[in-house]
Amino acid sequence: MPDQQFWNQRYIEKNTGWDLGSVSRPFVHLLETGRLKRGMSILIPGSGRSHEGIYLAREGFRVTVVDFAPEVTREVREQVAKEGVRMEVLNEDIFQLDPATHGTFDYLLEQTCFCAIDPERRSEYVEMAWRMLRPGGMLFGLFYAHGREGGPPWTTTPEEVRALFDPRFDFLEFSVTEQSVDSRKGEELLAFLRRRPG
């Protein structure tokens, strides 16, 4: 399975076809329609080049992004300094985040992390998301249901997402988004999930 060295090498080689090079449209739409509230704290796990993180930091969110590839973490820190935004950039494993940060985030934004990890660790991802959010906190996520064999990115289904997250989260909305880029039309499931109490 892909490990830290695998992902780091992909960034070194600029072999990052999943990277849109800009903010994913559905998240811009969420902000423009008032679904994301400025001033909130937000965690973005497996954040890559952090287009969403930089965008949201510029829009007034308190952003923490996490990726375990040192190369991309370095790139993001340089970009953050260049753009003059305030954003915490962590080079860490999302499954081993500091216990002091547990339960401190209002939002968690899922974008191409769930589809990049070993599918056998998806239940661990759910537990990580639940652990990091405060009670009543929200997960805003795009889940990649492309239906193709192999990965990464590994596909998912609406049924799998519901089965994994339902024990820990309330599904407020969950459907295929109309705001996807053309290359992902009909393949991205936009989810609004609320963290349940313990």
Report on the architecture of this protein.
The chain is an alpha/beta fold and 198 residues long. It has one domain (4-195): 3-Layer(aba) Sandwich (Rossmann fold). It is built from 6 helices and 7 strands; from the N terminus they run ααβαβαββαβαββ. Strands 3-2-1-4-5-7-6 form a 7-stranded mixed β-sheet, with helices on both faces. α3 links the parallel β1 (41-45) and β2 (62-67). The longest helix has 14 residues, at 70-83. The radius of gyration is 16 Å and the shape is globular. The model has no long low-confidence stretch (mean pLDDT 94).
Beta percentage is: 25-35%
The count of strands amounts to 7
Q: How many structural domains are formed by the residues?
A: 1
Number of helices: 6
> What's the arrangement of strands in the largest beta sheet?
3-2-1-4-5-7-6
Largest sheet: 7 strands, mixed
Overall radius of gyration: 16 Å
Query: pLDDT under 50 segments (min length 5)?
Result: none
